[in-house]
């Protein structure tokens, strides 16, 4: 019995798996480049759904007596002439989220909140204001710049770390992959119209860290196999390394995915954006290690990681 328990009872991928991933290297890189370009275009038009953190304005969460009549509440709020007022149901049928544009200084914000509170109470007696958040244009701009700087610094830090730990080919492959992963995540936010705010920035930074961790495992195995199989072609070394780490990569990703899934399903609107971004990033990071990072190492390291292999075609052509 103890002998049986000493071995894994379940393997996601058989130990003798030998999938020739590098046969699809060119297709993987081309598809990734296309998706990243499309993501950048979507981020520009129709654009990201910026949250109050980055756009500025006022957010009010209210709860009505019984099911909310959105049309009646919208009509009451719009009649106040406070700009473009947006209302949406927020989880429960009696919960409503109201968005107002920036109202100038703090005094203007307080007047706007008081006016909306009175108008909604008149339109739907018993309405309670649960929370109010207000961010000015200057603060929202500073938060947006801070978020972008944090993202840029994280990418730079990961590049430096991998560059010092591995050969430069691995560092270049990792940072290109991280940029592609980040743009695709932004494209996901643009398509789903999940709010782009500080929470989603935190999710992207978490994805970057997880993605680097997954790639470091593959890089370590590649380096070991390059030393172990000195005569094996680089393409075969890359395929062998991916297959040998496939169980670990999929297992780790599945564990993180299952831990984030309840947040997406039951965490409510406050955590949904973070959780769904995380879920998308987990799947993206795992697949990019195979179909983007590995092919980049294969092509950038063809001459330096296997110099004899690269020199052989040139010698054959000369003769």
From TrEMBL:
Q: According to its UniProt record, where is this protein located?
A: Cell membrane
The record describes its membrane topology as: Multi-pass membrane protein
Keyword list, A-Z: Cell membrane, Membrane, Protein transport, Translocation, Transmembrane, Transmembrane helix, Transport
Q: Which Pfam families match?
A: SecD_SecF_C (PF02355)
Q: Which domain of life is it from?
A: Bacteria
Explain the purpose of this protein: Part of the Sec protein translocase complex. Interacts with the SecYEG preprotein conducting channel. SecDF uses the proton motive force (PMF) to complete protein translocation after the ATP-dependent function of SecA.
Q: What is this protein called?
A: Protein-export membrane protein SecF
Protein species of origin: Falsiroseomonas frigidaquae
